[in-house]
Amino acid sequence: MQRLKITSIEAAPLFGESPKGGWSTEIKPDDSIHALIAVHTDAGITGLGSVFTDGRMVQAALQVLRPLFDGENALEPERVAEKLHQNTFWMGRGGVITHTISGIDIALWDILGKVTHQPVGRLLGGTYRHRVQPYCSLLMEEPQQMADTVAAFRARGFRAFKIGWGPFGRALDPKLDETIVRAAREAAGDTAKLFVDAGASDAYWPHGLKWALRTAQMLDDFDVGWFEEPLRPDALDDYCALRLQSRVPIAGGEVLTRRQSFLPWLSRGAFDIVQPDVTKVGGISEQRRIAWLADEFGVKYIGHGWNTALGLAADLHLAAAMPQTDLVEFIGGSPYVDGILSEPFMLDDEGYLAIPDGPGLGVQLDPAKLARFTPNPEVLFAPPKRR
Ligand SMILES: [Mg+2]
Prior knowledge:
single chain; Enolase-like, domain 1; TIM Barrel; 2 domains; three-stranded antiparallel β-sheet; 13 helices; 12 strands; binds magnesium ion
């Protein structure tokens, strides 16, 4: 097969069940912050992807991008995604357009895998692992509630946890911050991995470098594996200073998009761990290039994965293909992760996830389950008739 023509690309915005973000302006049920994407082809093969942006804006971006992807060859993800990036430069190089291209690119890799009968991870260059440890990502809460939540997910088999956002730092109470982390560490157990995410990309983050330095010292006492987004998202110099002085590894990068944006952060030494989001940066093609670029600088790539089961599937395949990527993010208790696949992801006895080994992303959406979250799930399974 030389060519598979893209006949349409559709988006299904997800509504109603977005987990709380711990944001200053909290997510409401009628907000859409994620969309699923389907790329339909003339051979009847459909690829699936995920986008971390309001689904209604994704639908608008698809209208803008349509002349560029209509009739394109669905077997060439990197070239087609690059064509979309290169020809939309004047719309800002980033933001909704780049987020939407992410979902298209993920779907094109899914198609290439389905056509070649290979898992995406192998198409990315080879398989370093067949399973990966998910860390359970949880919203920071008051200490007793935090302990109860971590204990509940530990009972479900998770052995790695990240707590973030909510009152941490925002309550302007360092004692409370420490009490929350202590409660989480005690509930997780001494041998569990524990990470802390300040979420300083939130609106009006109230702290600077000195807070981050003191807090990093406190986190070291609880054997915290990384300190994520401890500073405002544009504070490149402070990130570099913090990384030099903190014993706890510094993580960030979830708000950056496009591979080019990562270059100064990597070359100047801002991060120990870089966390691009495959559903925002430009998809698997872009994420792979960022991951390898980071590797050249000795920075570990562990993707940001606060999105959907399709985003998680993409993260798993990238983890298969990257030598150092031994963790994926897994939102604790999100219906968009646990409730949209015909066979949901399951932990094994040691708290790991198997990387799907079927063709493409290796996962199937369940139309009946999806109907709870999006008004027209059918557009993901067959192209709608257009006049
Ligand atoms: Mg984060």
